[in-house]
Amino acid sequence: MEGGIYLSMQVRQMRGDSILVVESVGEGVEDLAPGDHVVPIFNGECGTCAYCHSSATNLCGTYRVDAFKSTMVSDNGTRFSVVNTSGDTVPVYHFLNTSTFAEYTVLDAACAVKINPAAPLEKMCLLSCGISTGVGAAWNTANVSKGSTVAIFGLGAVGLAVGEGARIRGASRIIGVDINPEKFAKGKEMGITDFINPKACGKPVHEVIKELTDGGVDYSFECSGNVDVLREAFVSTHDGWGLTVVLGIHPTPRMMPLHPMELFDGRRITGCTFGDFKGKSQLPLLVDQCMKGEVKINFDGFITHEMPFSEINEAFRLLEEGKSLRCVLRL
Q: At the fourth CATH level, which superfamily is domain 6-129+277-330?
């Protein structure tokens, strides 16, 4: 490999969030070496730009997540190719800075986090996205305080990770909102204390939440990617100090259903990327804290299935049907 700061890594264990073992490094890579255990992150950290030096953001000026970018940041090229049915060699493009559904992959070094090699790979892989995003939203973005009240809209892996983070912070009441009542059993494992099924309510969800919490929750988290749900999350918080954190991916062109004057009631709303963790700077410490038992995150509770990589399409089917949280794929 010529120039650039990127890695060639052999995948030892893969999933939607993945962990890799470094196979080789390119020219200019100084903080990683063959044999290192790393967590790939979609929201990179170069460590040298103004964004990386700022404590106000976890975005990077160069390697921040960009769902529309399909090439390497270092040279706008690709590292994969395949021979098609016509016998032509065509490029295979990259995805979210990681491209981890392969036995071997190539990453920019800014998107690889070196972790303690003693940490169990099949658990730490969840820090690539799901757990770090949800737990970080509760810890870093909202800074959930002990005794506070929380509402989580959407109980997928990210929403349940928010619940886990709020539980660890000592929230007194954690309300889970989801149209799938089967999610509540798993939610209880993550500290969720109350469950609301919008389909079973005779009134808007925010009214139910206000009745349960004497005027609204301190923090709400929107994890569904639905703007109507976002509005319910916003108005379910207590006026004067309520904070809504947006985590869901919103694929439609619809705008937020909020009137500017509603912000004058003291409620606030903010977005969150990767749990506001600076990946390369902060994830290694979190891994060490988990290893020492200083932070007790229920990693096992998020792994609902394990299967060989050859059954990846079945893993996606389980995810789409809401029957799994995270499926570990093994080679």
A: Medium-chain alcohol dehydrogenases, catalytic domain (3.90.180.10)
